[in-house]
């Protein structure tokens, strides 16, 4: 099994439980740490559609406006992958309109991506 697929193969409840354990017992070190694609844990949770993990990370101080190598924040990725449950959690916790209107490397905001990807429920 490739390293990249391991995260996708773990069910979301197990992943959430593991993250809760780590954050609770080892503190917030690395809550905004980045992988080789400059993604934070919040980016990854948004990509895979784990709403509980998105909420947990935000509650523990994850930066919603942090951008990856494509200058996309977690909101961009939730839209791109059609994860409206994560998008709802991100938007409800987002106090920074700059994150909602941020442009990615292609000059697209999350709303632009929403229209481009055809995710009607995300922009309603």
Radius of gyration: 14 Å
CATH topology: Serine Threonine Protein Phosphatase 5, Tetratricopeptide repeat
Q: Which CATH class?
A: Mainly Alpha
Number of helices: 9
CATH architecture: Alpha Horseshoe
Strand count, sense and barrel status of the largest sheet are: none
How much helicity do the residues have? 55-70%
Q: Outline the low-pLDDT stretches.
A: 1-6
Please indicate the count of domains.
Answer: 1
Pattern of helices and strands: HHHHHHHHH
Instruction: Calculate the terminal CA-CA distance, rounded to whole Å.
Output: 39 Å
Shape: globular
Number of strands: 0
By CATH, the superfamily comes out as Ankyrin repeat-containing domain
* Percent of residues in beta strands: under 5%
The whole-number mean of residue pLDDT values reads: 83
Structural class by helix and strand composition:
mainly alpha
